[in-house]
Specification:
The chain is mostly beta strands and 303 residues long. The protein has one domain. Helix content is 12%, strand content 38%. It has helices at 8-25, 35-40, 286-289, 293-301, and strands at residues 57-60, 65-74, 77-87, 93-98, 110-111, 114-116, 122-126, 131-135, 140-145, 163-169, 172-177, 181-186, 194-195, 200-205, 208-216, 222-226, 229-231, 235-237, 246-247, 261-265, 271-275, 280-282. The strands form six sheets. It has a five-stranded mixed β-sheet with strand order 6-10-11-12-13. Strands 1-2-3-4 form a four-stranded antiparallel β-sheet, with no helix packed on it. It starts with 7 loop residues before the first helix and ends with a helix.
Length: 303
């Protein structure tokens, strides 16, 4: 049911995290970040008698906690909706929360496919179309919230809107909904998550959207571009478009937002061209990069 993990997506968020670490501490080292430990948490001697299915157990080294989603029977219906949190050394139960039915009484909840939360200590939990967060430091359930999109979405079938994949990278949450596309939240304030809407969105066909996100980085005024792309089958890739964050102008006209080609400008007015359908940058010559938007669009459409 979940999307296959594509490693290029975590690499992008690691880059953002490293930039943030450099800003706060002046240091950053990719060699200290182990992907397996990021995905599954730390190892622990605590062994629970009834482990949930693969992907629904998380171990936190920072808080010495194990969180899992287990089956529970509520009003005669058994479903994986019981969140339990244990102390890692002796398996003492420290919190238990029965998550509410979402879509149907037997629909299961899942932990986010990746929970990298070394500073935030927030755990992501996805239902059918609702999202909860568990604050492992304060032992508090937060939410629910639902995915937010730039433009209205239509239902293709009964499965439309189902959250198929979700990743939490410190203060950013990224996820994908069937037939509706990618959503992003800023979790700087976990009790009041704010939706990060794409600066441009291009609808290619029913349930297929190209969404261009502008992600602020450091130093101030610099941005990275993210254009998640659904692959054939159950895959999602979200490579950064820029080799490094650039000082970009963030203005874009409303009429240009639903086009195959998007033109952005650096602060020095150098143009950057994006093909939303291809999900990639378009290389411009030095002459073209200083041309007008109309001239660049003529070039893009004539390729």
């Amino acid at each position: 049911m979940g999307l296959q993990l594509v490693r290029s997506l975590p690499i992008f968020w690691l880059c953002l995290l490293l930039v943030a670490c450099q800003d706060n501490n002046g240091t950053g080292n990719t060699e200290t970040l182990d992907m397996d430990s990021i995905i599954s948490g730390d190892n622990t001697p605590c062994q629970l008698d009834s482990l949930p299915e693969d992907g629904n157990l998380y171990r936190s080294n920072a808080t010495h906690r194990i969180a899992g989603i287990f089956e529970a029977t509520d009003e005669g219906v058994t479903a994986r909706r019981l969140l339990e949190v244990y102390e890692t050394l002796n398996c003492i139960l420290v919190d238990r929360v029965l998550l509410p039915p979402n879509s149907s009484p037997d629909y299961p909840y899942y932990l986010a496919e990746i929970n990298y939360n070394q500073s935030s200590q927030i755990l992501g939990i996805r239902g059918f179309d609702q999202i909860f967060f568990y604050d492992m430091q304060h032992e508090e359930l937060l939410g629910p919230i639902s995915p937010v999109f730039k433009n209205p979405r239509n239902m293709v079938d009964a499965q439309s809107g189902m959250i198929q994949h979700m990743e939490l990278w410190e203060h950013y949450l990224i996820g994908y909904c069937q037939d509706q596309g990618t959503f992003v939240f800023d979790l700087s304030y976990p009790t009041a998550p704010s939706s990060v809407l794409p600066m441009a969105e291009y609808k290619q066909d029913a349930g297929n959207f190209a969404q261009l996100f502008l992600i602020p980085t450091v130093p101030a005024g610099h941005y990275q571009l993210l254009l998640p792309k659904k692959l054939d089958g159950n895959g999602l890739v979200a490579n950064p478009l820029l080799k490094m964050p650039l000082p970009l102008k963030t203005e874009i006209t409303e009429g240009a937002q639903n086009n195959q080609y998007i033109i952005l400008r650096e602060k020095d007015n150098k143009a950057i061209a994006i093909d939303m359908k291809a999900g990639s940058l378009v290389e411009l010559s030095n002459e073209l990069s200083s041309a007008t938007n109309a001239q660049i669009l003529d070039f893009l459409r004539s390729r």
